[in-house]
Amino acid sequence: MQGNFIHETALIEEKVTIGHFVSIGHSTTVGDNSRIEDGARVYNDCFIGNNCIIGANAVLRPRTRLGDNSIFGTLSCSEGDNIVGNFTTIHAQCHITKGVSIGDNCFIAPFFIATNTPVITDGRHGVSPSDYKFVKTSIENDVRIGANVRLTPGLTIGAFSVIDQDTFLTKNVPPHSRVRGGKDKIGVVIGEA
């Protein structure tokens, strides 16, 4: 465990494997049989369930909750205040913005991007404080999302839906839907999954 920082208030359960250069913040819990790979950064007040894998160089910002038997992939980032269910895989290089809820048994392929700021303005860091509106996004249980999918803030993807790769979602997706991006990459519901 070369070069690791594990805060004294972190609760690391039995049989946890921790790679090199890992950082775990205060009041964080890591469940039994979980694995945190090299270079991962887990911030304060996070919860990682039992039998989870946190990939190399992944980032879990404050108050991220990961259910049992879930995977948070290499170089992926949770911006915090997110909930990820049980048996869910978030593949490599995904960006889960603040305030996203992801259900149980979901699969999210690489390069998924969830956003939470509907408007880019002239303010600092892309958003003027007077224009900032934080909206939450929800991905319900048993959703499958292909590679390179992006979605605008505040959407709900209904349970048992399949979102094909290279889709840009701008509207809520009803449960049991199949969504495919067109030439303009705007997602269109094409039928039941």
What would the keywords be for this entry?
193 residues; mainly beta; UDP N-Acetylglucosamine Acyltransferase, domain 1; ten-stranded mixed sheet; nine-stranded parallel sheet; globular
Task: Give your account of this protein's structure.
The protein is built from no helices and 27 strands. The chain is mainly β and 193 residues long. The chain has one domain: Hexapeptide repeat proteins (UDP N-Acetylglucosamine Acyltransferase, domain 1). Strands 3-6-9-12-15-18-21-24-26-27 form a ten-stranded mixed sheet, with no helix packed on it. It is globular and about 50 Å long.
Summarize the structure.
The protein has 193 residues and is mainly beta. It contains no helices and 27 strands. The chain has one domain: Hexapeptide repeat proteins (UDP N-Acetylglucosamine Acyltransferase, domain 1), CATH 2.160.10.10.
How are the SSEs ordered, and which strands pair?
Layout: E1 5-6, E2 11-12, E3 17-18, E4 23-24, E5 29-30, E6 35-36, E7 41-42, E8 47-48, E9 53-54, E10 59-60, E11 65-66, E12 71-72, E13 77-78, E14 83-84, E15 89-90, E16 95-96, E17 100-102, E18 107-108, E19 113-114, E20 137-139, E21 144-145, E22 150-151, E23 156-157, E24 162-163, E25 168-169, E26 177-181, E27 187-192
Parallel strand pairs: 1-4, 2-5, 3-6, 4-7, 5-8, 6-9, 7-10, 8-11, 9-12, 10-13, 11-14, 12-15, 13-16, 14-17, 15-18, 16-19, 17-20, 18-21, 19-22, 20-23, 21-24, 22-25, 24-26
Antiparallel strand pairs: 26-27
The count of strands amounts to 27
CATH architecture: 3 Solenoid
What is the alpha-carbon Rg in Å? 17 Å
The biggest sheet amounts to: 10 strands, mixed
**Spatial strand sequence of the major β-sheet:** 3-6-9-12-15-18-21-24-26-27
Helix content: under 10%
**Total of DSSP H or I helical runs spanning 4+ residues:** 0
CATH topology (level 3) name: UDP N-Acetylglucosamine Acyltransferase, domain 1
Strand fraction equals: 25-35%
Mean pLDDT: 90
Order of helices and strands: EEEEEEEEEEEEEEEEEEEEEEEEEEE
Q: How many distinct folded domains? A: 1
CATH superfamily: Hexapeptide repeat proteins
Large-scale geometry: globular
The parts where pLDDT drops under 50 for at least 5 residues are none
By CATH reckoning, the class would read Mainly Beta
How far do the termini sit from each other? 44 Å
Helix and strand composition category: mainly beta
